[in-house]
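Appendix C reproduces, verbatim, an entry submitted by the partner laboratory led by Prof. M.T., so that reviewers can inspect both the input and the predicted structure.
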Amino acid sequence: MSKIKGGDLMLFLNTTGKSIAYATSHTLEITGETTDTSNKDEGGGDWASQEVNLLSWSATSENLYSLDGEGNNFADLFDLMIAKTPIKAVFGKKSSNATDVPDGGWEASNASTSTPIYEGNVVITSLSLNAPNGEYSTYTAQFQGVGALVKKTTV
């Protein structure tokens, strides 16, 4: 079984098809909205029963703040957020095994059946810039899925 390190999985945006510059962490979350279907005929009255109605998904990116860097930065994400327009997002493995970011930023790998990619449209719902005294500034970007998240084997 092949294990994948967290540094190899990234969030890529369609504005450039590149990752977010100076990312320290990316998260993909898929959730299901449920409805209680408990009744007197099933479960003996002691156990609740649930049915999934709607699925939703979101992504989060935590990053060091910079005005440059290869890939999308805070200013790019700010522009995308105020445009209020859905953008394509891809969560998957980066294309290069290099230790330093390539010119232009990381790109998503063409997936294989053993390492799929997850793709869909998102809107940016939150940008939070943190500037602690004596430390590097950071920011967090939160993305909410618009429609389906699809598992694919190619970008």
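The domain at 6-34+47-152 is CATH 2.30.110 (Pnp Oxidase; Chain A). Additional entries are available on request from the coordinating office.
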